[in-house]
Amino acid sequence: MDVDRRVAQHYRHGNLRASIEAGLHQLGKSSEKVTIEDLAPVDEFHIGGRSASKHFLDQLNLTQDMSILDVGCGLGGAARYAAENYKAHVTGVDLTPEYIDAGQALCEWVGLSGRVSLHEENALSMTFENARFDSAYMMHVGMNIEDKRRLFSEIHRVLSPGALFGIYDIMQAGSGDLNYPVPWATSAATSWLADAEEYKQHLENAGFVIVGEEDRRDFALQFFEKAQKANDVNGGPPSLGLHILMQHTTAEKIANMIGNIESGRIAPHEIIARKT
Description:
Blueprint: H1 3-11, H2 16-26, H3 36-43, H4 49-57, E1 67-71, H5 77-86, E2 89-94, H6 97-109, E3 116-120, E4 133-139, H7 148-158, E5 159-172, H8 196-206, E6 208-215, H9 217-234, H10 243-246, H11 250-262, E7 266-275
Parallel strand pairs: 1-2, 1-4, 2-3, 4-5
Antiparallel strand pairs: 5-7, 6-7
């Protein structure tokens, strides 16, 4: 099995759209009456969820009718947030067919299919023309891509001159082997971590200049602590949440993620770059 298939297989659910609909019904909602806020707990597959998306995307100076690329869009939660709140047109690409199919259905449910378009594509060889997009971002994606040099060169190609590119990834922060499984990988076989310096070097080699960065370790630990307290109070996770995506492996993956961050091995990190 090639790398792309192994990565896509890791995220495969088997009955994703129906599981999301079931979670909505438990909340007294339906696909006919749902908002992006209702969906946020399940379709923003990164540390911090909607709060992290807002903090991150606000730095990209997104404005009405800009054409934005979401690299590794998953279900498209961040894309729908950008379309709804910045009035942008967002194109998402992802390797996992089930995420694309379910994500496009969610766009239709919330009335954003005219502003958000999700596609099954490999970010290392996209079919878009040169200088197609006004901005781009990726959130918790680079951990599944070994060839970051090629990735950033391809993103540079499809961006217009002066465009901002934002990264919010889990990055290597210290030495030591990770405890697996984690949300993005069952084992080290499909996990390619790099530290912030390596990211920046590849970005600069691709033709970007770094304009900002922020370590989000403390934010991440506070987020997980708050989530655990809410689960304790409510007797378990909410009807809609990332446990729908990770299913029976959720508890182990989250525990390992927290442990790896607490130990200093990894941390979520933001980098903002500009195409020269």
